[in-house]
Structure formats: structure tokens, C-alpha cells
Design a protein that fits this description.
It is a single chain. This protein is of the alpha+beta class. It folds into 2 domains: 56 residues, Laminin (Ribbon), CATH 2.10.25.10; 36 residues. The chain is built from 2 helices and 4 strands; from the N terminus they run αββββα. β3 and β4 form a beta hairpin. The longest helix has 34 residues. The radius of gyration is 29 Å and the shape is rod-shaped. The N and C termini lie far apart (95 Å). Bound molecules: calcium ion (CA). The site of calcium ion (CA) has 8 residues, from β1 and β2.
């Protein structure tokens, strides 16, 4: 077994899995060939195990932030209107 490993590393008969189909890694991942194996790592801006990478879309996160901000803004506006209506009715 040790002789086989030695033979592999010395003669570089390792298969470069990355040469074909990015080693099975995701299209947004980088494939790194190692002796006897290979590894996948998601590119910057993506998260996952390398086989599956999902976008960490900052625009989406910003949109969610704006959406939450607008929702709270509208809620505050509605409460303000209700308060004004309440005060007007009380003064009548
Ligand atoms: Ca390999």
C-alpha cells in the first residue's frame, strides 16, 4: 500500500479529475486536483460544499433590507394616522 502511494506520487500517474467536467464540481466552484483525489470549493460570492454552490447575492439582501424598512415605515405611518384620528375624535 505504501509502495503504491510512493509509486503514484513519484510517477505522477494521478488522474486530474478536474480536466473533465470541472471534476463534477459546480460551475461556480473551482476544482483542485490532489494526488489520488480532488477537491471542490465554491468561488467567491458563492456558498456551499463545492458540488452545490448558491449565490450570496448582495443585491437580494439589500432588497430584503429595503423591503423590511418599507414595511416598518408603513406600519409606523399607519399607527401615526390612527393616533391622529384618535386625537381628532377625542377633541370633537
Ligand atoms: Ca487527482
Amino acid at each position: 500500500m505504501l509502495q503504491l502511494l510512493f509509486y503514484n506520487s513519484k510517477n505522477k500517474i494521478d488522474i486530474d479529475e478536474c480536466e473533465v467536467n470541472n471534476g463534477g464540481c459546480h460551475s461556480n466552484a473551482t476544482c483542485e486536483n490532489t494526488i489520488g483525489s480532488f477537491s471542490c470549493a465554491c468561488k467567491k460570492g458563492y456558498s456551499g460544499d463545492g458540488i452545490n454552490c448558491v449565490t450570496m447575492d448582495e443585491n437580494n439582501q439589500a432588497a430584503i433590507g429595503i423591503g423590511v424598512g418599507v414595511a416598518f415605515g408603513l406600519l409606523a405611518l399607519i399607527l401615526l394616522i390612527l393616533l391622529v384620528i384618535f386625537l381628532i375624535k377625542r377633541n370633537v
